[in-house]
User: Fold this.
Amino acid sequence: MQHILIFRHLANEGPGYFSEFLQRHNVAYRLIAIDKNQPVPDSLDNVAGLVFMGGPMSVNDPLPWIADELRLIQQAFRQDLPMLGHCLGGQLISKALGGQIGPNPVKEIGWLPVQRAQNSEAQDWLCGLPENFEAFHWHGETFAIPRGATTILSSAHCPNQGFVIGNTLALQCHVEMTADMVRDWAQVNDTEIAQPSATIQSAAQMTERLPERIEELHQYADLLYTRWLRPILSAKQSN
Assistant:
């Protein structure tokens, strides 16, 4: 049976709401726990798609699993397999497809707005989403848009918040968050948010109205994930 591979790079940066979404749609998946030294597969046999989660490391770090994931992304892209990246995951996809990864002018941490691009790809992938909506962020680096890809999301301080190419969706922001994940990240990374600014929120700020914010985020995630899942469900029905 075909399944989706989800790559986790840190124990507390797992698939979160995305795994709930897959379970609701009866889509099989397998977690590859890089944080537990599980190896990156060298084959895509019986794989329906690849999903890459976040992490505090840089894609430019000399970690052996990064090179392995980049090779797998390139292999999957040649086979037109659907891929999805969240934050670090989006940066991995960008780098594998020829994009550069480097520091963003400022760190974006907390609930900050993103804007839809005005192009046909954004209309396709973001259909049903508002022109401006709030997403969760936790990043200091950002990706360039690889050749052949199209920007679909941006923010005031980070012009490249999301891009698509073929069946691939790469996001700089986080739409997979749960309330528990927000609270945990704020606690574990308290030193990083010790000096709030216009783009860095305190723990109190990012947990304010948390249930309502998470409910809205999941509505947006449902639309994005449903569009991303379309070719996988289509292939599943035809088999």
Notes: The first helix runs from residue 17 to 24.
